[in-house]
Design goal:
Elements: H1 7-26, H2 30-50, H3 54-69, H4 72-94
Helix pairs in contact: 1-2, 2-3, 3-4
Keywords: Membrane, Transmembrane, Transmembrane helix
Length: about 120
């Protein structure tokens, strides 16, 4: 079973560690880091929803909300848990364990035909 990663998947896998490294090395304020990570997660959720993967989109929205809304340690723990859930859903979808609900190009992804 091979993973079929697209460019958004690669951005997801690389983006979060890059943001974490940038926030540590640049010594940014907590609110700036939260805004950057929250914006990145919301951007990912939009592309995942548009790509027919609402499971991942919900995880990324939850991560964005957790990091921006919930302050302190609880917010960080919730963000990390939702980040792991999102990455698990990403890999689960690419391994064929989760269905693609719809596609941008309008092709049918299930075994059933449109006419029944």
């Amino acid at each position: 079973m091979a993973l079929a990663l697209d460019r958004i998947d690669v951005m997801t896998i690389i983006g979060f560690p890059v943001l974490a490294a940038a926030s540590v090395s640049a010594a940014l304020e907590g609110i700036v880091v939260a805004a950057l990570v929250g914006g990145f997660a919301l951007s990912l959720s939009t592309w995942r929803l548009y790509g027919g993967r609402p499971w991942e989109a919900l995880a990324w929205v939850g991560a964005a909300v957790a990091v921006v809304i919930t302050p302190g340690t609880l917010g960080i723990v919730a963000f990390l848990v939702l980040l792991l859930v999102g990455l698990g859903l990403l890999f689960g979808g690419r391994l064929g364990l989760l269905p693609t609900i719809w596609n941008r190009d309008g092709t049918v992804t299930s075994d059933e035909s449109i006419d029944g």
